[in-house]
Amino acid sequence: MPTTPMPGQTAPTLNLPLIIGTRWELSEQSPDSFTQIIVYRGLHCPVCKEYLGQMRKLYDDFLAKGVETIHVSMDTEERAREAHEDWGLDPIPMAYGLSEQQARDWGLYISESIKDEEAQVFAEPAVFWVRPDGELYLANVSNSPFARPDLEFLLDKVDFIVEQAYPARGTRRAA
């Protein structure tokens, strides 16, 4: 069973190639509020296409609230580029090549293909928010393509979280 990183602690490292030929590193991000990491299953997933399409519609609104977003998957560069282009996700950064070990470090569920069009191995969806200082604030990890947080609801809560200095929850460790 995966172990999700603990909110209130430093987020795991993340350094991935982008489809534009550069690299993205979590430790180098400097959002006003949060870095939002959206892990999607891959090009084969129609639910991901819909979810990331919704994110594209809200992207500028998230940016206006200081939330910078990146899409991440275990897909190859070719498959990530195809998803980005075919799903109309520009200008949201698209990373690819998440390793199985990196996925496990982030507490992601890992699946094996059950259909020919699926990647052999892929990470199930997740949404993470990381504060500018590298602290993990929010971790929503799913083992199913059908269970994901509502992006409009999350967007609506950014101001409250920031203005009220609302702390990360779920930080109590077992005795």
Number of strands: 8
Most strands sheet: 4 strands, mixed
CATH topology group: Glutaredoxin
Question: Which CATH class applies here?
Answer: Alpha Beta
Domain Thioredoxin: 5-163
Organism: Palleronia pontilimi
GO molecular function, one term: oxidoreductase activity
Protein name: AhpC/TSA family protein
Summarize this, please?
The chain has helices at 46-64, 77-86, 100-105, 151-163; strands at residues 15-17, 23-25, 34-39, 67-72, 110-112, 121-123, 126-130, 136-141.
Write the layout of secondary structure elements.
Blueprint: E1 15-17, E2 23-25, E3 34-39, H1 46-64, E4 67-72, H2 77-86, H3 100-105, E5 110-112, E6 121-123, E7 126-130, E8 136-141, H4 151-163
Parallel strand pairs: 3-4
Antiparallel strand pairs: 1-2, 3-7, 5-6, 7-8
Describe the structure.
This is AhpC/TSA family protein. One of its GO terms (molecular function) is oxidoreductase activity. Residues 5-163 form the Thioredoxin domain. Pfam families: AhpC-TSA. The protein is built from 4 helices and 8 strands; from the N terminus they run E-E-E-H-E-H-H-E-E-E-E-H. The chain is α+β, with helices and mostly antiparallel strands and 175 residues long. It has a single domain (15-20, 30-163), classed as Glutaredoxin. The chain has a 4-stranded mixed β-sheet. A two-stranded antiparallel sheet has the order 1-2. A hairpin with a 5-residue loop joins strand 7 (126-130) and strand 8 (136-141). The radius of gyration is 15 Å and the shape is globular. The chain starts with 14 loop residues before the first strand and ends in a 12-residue tail after the last helix.
